[in-house]
Amino acid sequence: xxxxxxKFTLKSNPSIGFESTHSEDTPQVRxxxxxxxDPRPFPxxxxxxxxxxxxxxxxxxxxxxxxxxKFATYDDSKLVSFIRKVQPIVEEELSHGMTPMFDCNDNxxxxxxxxxxxxxxxLTLRGLNPDHAVDRPFYVGAAAWLSILTRDAPLLVxxxxxxxxxxxxxxxxxxxVFCPKRDRYGASxxxxxxxxxxxxxxxxxxxxxxxxxxMFAGGTVSGDVYIxxxxxxxxxxxxxxxxxxxxxxxCGKVVDMAWARYNVMSKSDxxxxxxxxxxxxxxxxxxxxxxxxxxFKLSAPSANGRALILTQILATSNxxxxxxxxxxxxxxxxxTQLIPLGGTATSAERTxxxxxxxxxxxxxxxxxxxxxxxxxxxxxxxxxxSLQKIENRRQELLISCDxxxxxxxxxxxxxxxxxxxxxxxxxxxxxxxxxxxxxxxxIFSPTGSGLLELYRIGSGKVDTVEPSVPLKGSPNLIKMxxxxxxxxxxxxxxxxxxYSVAMEF
Length: 505
What we know:
The protein is mainly β. The protein has a domain at about 250-340 and about 365-430: Methylamine Dehydrogenase, Chain H, CATH 2.130.10. About 5% of the residues lie in helices and about 40% in strands. Strands 10, 11, 12, 13, 14, 15, 16, 17 and 18 form a 9-stranded mixed sheet that branches. The N and C termini lie far apart (about 100 Å). One of its GO terms (cellular component) is ciliary plasm. This is WD repeat-containing protein 55 homolog. InterPro entries: Dynein_IC, WD40/YVTN_repeat-like_dom_sf, WD40_repeat_dom_sf. One of its GO terms (molecular function) is dynein heavy chain binding.
């Protein structure tokens, strides 16, 4: 080993430092460093200053108004006035439902592309009179949709009869109720016959009461007026189809019918208007009792004494109705002011009277024949075959169609303007009946061979829906259900076609 290195390894140097004050003989308390004993320091700011800042609660978004009226900064009367002004507007907007959310790639100007119309079912009626060995097929038909029973499907009433002629004995006319039944999996519905009832003559008009969809009326070619009511009876369901009233009039064939409120103050009484070929309209009061209330004799101001032949009738309110005529005339009739008619009324009594129950009772002894106030609208070129009223975008429209497919749209939101807002000429063949969708996008019309035409109002394009097999006959019927999801057309030799209508978003 190197001698120089042995100096450092073998020799011990004395310790350098301070003497310890710790004495093992006297134990001392050691301070604990894991628990602080100093007071909590004030939070320091980030701006570099050393002095602590006082913390303040400052509201930066909303400031609540003081509860005391002494310090209030708003006016209660102005707030109440504002709420009263805004509340009806908000309620009206909410009544229209949610606005549909369209995809950015959708064409908002061609909403009719989203309609899907499919043939759903075919119903066939045959006369079942035991006195006739061979029953003739039905060619004249009428139908009405009643209240919804299951899966958005309403009850259906169908009437059929052979072609009516002067020698017709009316022995095969019936009214049949069809009930929608779900299949075993609940995926679809099919209409099955529930009950049937004979009528006195060939029936060509059926109309559902829109204020009580379990009630409907029918009219025959002999002037008979029927009113029926359906009541669901699970024990005896086939006997739930009851006749409330039947009466024969002397005004000729019943061509069409319309329901309205008898009085806006009474919700239990209804008014039934029946239009007859000789220019007569009868007002029936339907309540606890069913009575003939008034008889209106119609005449056009420009007819110069020419007799009117009515073809259609539509009630636009409880005091107004519109009739269509065989010569293409459209007449708006008002029952608020009536002129009494009849040989017992003197010239002094031929004054304008109000259409009230009191006024009608005073004139009951002199006869209840009246002439309503009449306004002529723009007329069609040919016989009026369809009348319809729809509400679209806070607008009420009167839609009329004649035999050639000319369609007139009148705006009746406030009052009926004699000039139509829109005129459409649909292509041939002749149109006997049409219905328009509630959004005024489509017009449906049945044609020969069982075809259903779909006319697009915006573009004028025509699509067709074909039956399963070609059918023969000239259809004189098309009715759409109140929810707009079902159509029925006919009559093709006793066969009616039911269509399902869906809107695809």
